[in-house]
Amino acid sequence: MIKTSKTIVIGVVLLLALLIIVWSIHRIAPAWVEQQRNTLTGTAPQRVSDRARRLHQGLLVADLHGDSLLWGRDLGEMSDRGHLDLPRMRLGNLAIEVFSIVSKTPRGLNIHRNTGDSDDITPLSIVQGLPPRTWFSLPARVIYHANRLQDLAANPANRFRLLTSRADVSEFLKQRRKDPSITAGLLSIEGAHALDGRIEILDEFFDAGIRMVGLAHFFDNAVGGSAHGIKKGGLTPFGRRVIRRMEQRGMIVDLAHSSDKLINDVLAMARRPVVVSHTGARSVCNSPRNLTDDQLRRIAAAGGLIGVGFWPQATCGRGVAAIVRSLHYVSKLVGINHVVLGSDFDGAVPVPFDVTGLAQLTQGLLNAGFNESEIQNIMGVNLLRFFAEYLP
Ligand SMILES: [Zn+2]
């Protein structure tokens, strides 16, 4: 009898210890992982003049790519880790962010060759305490994160709008003229592997508010090849169906991370302009991650947008001047109206500043000789115009 109760006590103590360990991992591990990944490049901040600050405060700033949903933070709260949350968007005067959902990344991820055999997002999702339905289903994982952004928009205290249509964009602009602290987001996914090869999932994603699809991420998928995959192939028959369905529904195609063949095939069949949400120019920074002059010209000639990235593999530099050099090169090559910001904030990359430092970029553009109207276009108006024209 005594022996039994002793066993029960030991059992309860062990169980409690286990619960404390699991709880600590859940609390500490995601923060620790993010602190290792979403870093700063460590270059000295660009000094911002009064003129640049005034100009920046008057801009409508928009960014075509960030991965902030991945890290499990409450984006309604100011955080001391990562690059972006809603309070920091306000401080940096960023009006619109595209929140891209990362659903699967291979272990040992690199920009040259990856298979889709392993996945680092599964353990991260489990450690973050995501619902079990999201652990082994990519569509469920995507919809869970889309709902998180929907919930953020549903809480009036966040003063945050989800943009899903042209009507949402014009309503947002109207509200923001009255209250400049209101910010907005658009939902995207990074990699069409999350469709699980099923076209009906695209409709489920549309219903969850997703309006942009990055066709590839780090490995080849059922839609087409990744620039970092094994075969790096073109568009598959399923991929063609996905493009046509996206066009019917007014969803935006994003060619970031796509293989050269996939880019060619999509440009050959697309009836609407496409974007490359976060990239660089190979002529400035020679990497398979970046675009050739020919690709940049064809995307722009079809009415599309190039989002210039902020991180060293996109620009081959670490400071504000490196981002400005790429923005300058691409705008001279394809025209000022086709260049936008594609920061990759919170995309497991180092950047020169978090979102609160965006005025440094306005200063950098002034230093490089851009006039105020050109700066307005690059910093946000180009992207706003695109959404106002091509969303449903
Ligand atoms: Zn990316």
Describe the structure.
The chain has 392 residues and is α/β, with parallel strands linked by helices. Helix content is 45%, strand content 12%. The protein has helices at residues 2-37, 50-57, 86-91, 121-127, 138-154, 166-178, 199-207, 237-249, 260-269, 293-301, 312-315, 320-334, 359-367, 372-390; strands spanning 61-66, 94-102, 160-162, 183-190, 210-214, 252-254, 275-279, 305-308, 339-341. Strands 1, 2, 3, 4, 5 and 6 form a six-stranded parallel sheet that branches. Helix 2 (50-57) crosses helix 13 (359-367), helix 6 (166-178) crosses helix 14 and helix 12 packs across helix 13 (359-367). The termini are far apart. The mean pLDDT is 95. Zinc ion (ZN) binds at residues 190, 256-257, 278, 344, 347. Residues 190, 256-257, 278, 344, 347 line the site of zinc ion (ZN).
Task: Tell me the layout of helices and strands.
Blueprint: H1 2-37, H2 50-57, E1 61-66, H3 86-91, E2 94-102, H4 121-127, H5 138-154, E3 160-162, H6 166-178, E4 183-190, H7 199-207, E5 210-214, H8 237-249, E6 252-254, H9 260-269, E7 275-279, H10 293-301, E8 305-308, H11 312-315, H12 320-334, E9 339-341, H13 359-367, H14 372-390
Parallel strand pairs: 1-2, 2-4, 3-4, 4-5, 5-6, 7-8, 8-9
The structure holds zinc ion.
Which labels suit this protein?
single chain, alpha/beta, TIM Barrel, six-stranded parallel beta sheet, three-stranded parallel beta sheet, 14 helices, 45% helix, binds zinc ion
